[in-house]
Amino acid sequence: MAKLLEVQNLNKKYQSSQNEILALQDVNFYVNDGEFFSIIGPSGCGKSTLLSIIAGLEDKSSGEILIQGQKVNDISSKIGYMLQKDCLLEWRTILSNILFGLEIKGKINNETKSYAENLLKKYNLYEFKDKYPSELSGGMRQRVALIRTLAIKPKILLLDEAFSALDYQTRIMVTNDIYHILKEENITTIMVTHDISEAISMSDKVLVLTKRPGTVKKIHDIQFDIKDRSPINCRQNPEFTKYFDTLWRELGIDE
Amino acid sequence: MSENNISIERKQYLKKKRQKKYLILLTQIAILVCFLALWEILANFGIIDSFIMSQPSRILNTFFNLTSNDLLMHIWVTTYETIIGFLIGTLLGTLIAIILWWSDFIAKVSEPFLVVLNSLPKVALGPVIIIWVGAGTPAIIVMAIAISLIVTILENLNGFMKTDKDIIKMAKTFNASKFQILTKVVIPANLSTFINSLKVNIGLSLVGVISGEFLVSKAGLGYLIVYGGQVFKLDLVMTSVLILGIVAGLMYASVLLLEKIILHTKKFK
């Protein structure tokens, strides 16, 4: 498998009036094409900062980010980003919401529009295209937010605690839905989460960050001997508990 | 639930709710009628002096003799001065709020000045305004703008600053420019703030116009009130105040209508 994204010797320092904080120190890892890659770590370890830097939303202090071997310093059109909240614009219809990214990029044409509409059809939201976000359930809203991101055809999708605002029941369903959408569309994904089970059930690899300054502690390969893998059937597999124990202990040692 | 399928309890609930609404309206009308009747009767019996306190029947009389007092002209003058002051104050205030949102530096620099200007009673600027723009309609309009401008700036800026940071971040992930964030996120998200500032402004502009007319004018309801007071025509003063109340109410109602139209065309909660 080809390396799609590479992070090399990444450092991040924050300046405040009191002092200087080293948030990330010598972070190195790579993500292969088509992989689902999760980053977990204790709270305040800089995992969301790491994601923001990859997205180009924040500056790095030193190091390199490479996508398909090319250095990235800015907001790349190859990257899509999803936040914890769905951030749908309440004054726009669902259709107008999913076209928001294309509109900002000035890329609305018949081709991109029909691609976005097809995504709505494919994931059973087309009948709601003229409705407003307030008329949709939390899970549906999150799917709309995902389609808005996928409409710009990103190579890599970044999920920043994208499901933690949902209630537990919805969350399990939505992670399942979104996992299938991402596999279907063959999107490489990097997800930041504080939920160990969520990371194991969705990921091919899980990176554990240490507490601040965040640095890579270990990268685990997650493999299940299941034919049609899905987050829900992973949770029922005996391997799941083993992974959970390992990761849980690794996160705990620091504290 | 369909119309012909309403339970008895629901019917009773709706009936009670309706009754309460009517009761409130009825009481309000009763209070007004009692007040006016009492005023009229006490004046007729000479218990209160109708020369100083005026009297509903005399107010009505003045009101219906609109033409002899040029009342229509005075109403028109006050109304158009208010509308011009309101429009300029709102547009200029919103524009300045946008500039301050755009540049953090300008916002920080102007903050203390805005705070002082906001708490300064703008009427105190009256003489200065008269010297600068001349005694007349321009001075009155400037007064109306002076009163509504700072509030518009602060109110809108506050709304802009409170726009959901995550939504702005979402727009940034699509590489949105600052102008796009302004027009596609910040302004539509603050439509209700803007409408609120319209509601406040229409009242403030009227305050500005009336205090301007108190200082310098040859026409307008404010002029009529001052003039009436000076020549002890209390009927005229009371009638003008009454009309002013109606004008203020109508202006507020038209802003509410505008709100309805905007919210209808651009669904927004």
Structural overview:
The complex is a heterodimer of chains A (255) and B (269). Chain A is of the alpha/beta class and 255 residues long. Chain A has 2 domains: 1-78 and 155-162 and 185-255, P-loop containing nucleotide triphosphate hydrolases (Rossmann fold); 83-153, no CATH class. Helix content of chain A is 35%, strand content 25%. Chain A has helices at residues 47-55, 94-98, 100-104, 110-122, 138-150, 168-184, 196-202, 231-235, 238-252; strands spanning 3-15, 20-32, 36-40, 62-67, 70-71, 79-82, 156-160, 188-192, 205-209, 216-221. Chain A has a 6-stranded mixed β-sheet, sandwiched between helices. A 4-stranded antiparallel β-sheet of chain A has the order 2-1-4-5, with helices on one face. In chain A, helix 5 runs parallel beside helix 6 (168-184) and helix 7 crosses helix 9. The longest helix of chain A is centred in the last third of the chain and has 17 residues, at 168-184. The model of chain A has no long low-confidence stretch (mean pLDDT 86). With 269 residues, chain B is mainly alpha-helical. Chain B folds into 2 domains: 3-48; 62-265, MetI-like (MetI-like fold, Orthogonal Bundle), CATH 1.10.3720. Chain B is 81% helix and 0% strand. Chain B contains 12 helices and no strands. Chain B has helices at 8-44, 50-53, 56-64, 71-102, 104-119, 126-133, 137-161, 165-173, 178-189, 191-215, 221-230, 234-265. In chain B, helix 7 (137-161) packs antiparallel against helix 10. The two termini of chain B are 25 Å apart. The mean pLDDT of chain B is 89. The A-B interface holds A 55, 57, 75, 77, 79-81, 83-85, 87, 89-91, 100-101, 103-105, 132, 134, 152 and B 164, 166-167, 169-176, 180, 184-185, 188-189, 191, 266-269.
- What is the domain total for the residues of chain B? 2
Cα shape of chain A: globular
CATH superfamily of the largest domain in chain A: P-loop containing nucleotide triphosphate hydrolases
The shape of chain B is: flat
Mean pLDDT across the residues of chain B is: 89
CATH topology of the largest domain in chain B: MetI-like fold
Strand and helix order of chain A? EEEHEEEHHHHEHEHEEHH
Structural class of chain A: alpha/beta
Low-confidence stretches of chain B: none
According to CATH, what is the class of the largest domain in chain B?
A: Mainly Alpha
Q: Mean of residue pLDDT of chain A?
A: 86
* Most extensive contact: A-B, 22 and 21 residues
Helix content of chain A: 25-40%
| Topology pattern of chain B, helix = H, strand = E | HHHHHHHHHHHH
Helix and strand content put the structural class of chain B at mainly alpha
Q: Write out the CATH superfamily name of the largest domain in chain B.
A: MetI-like
Could you tell me the radius of gyration of chain B in angstroms? 24 Å
Oligomer: heterodimer
Annotated CATH architecture of the largest domain in chain B = Orthogonal Bundle
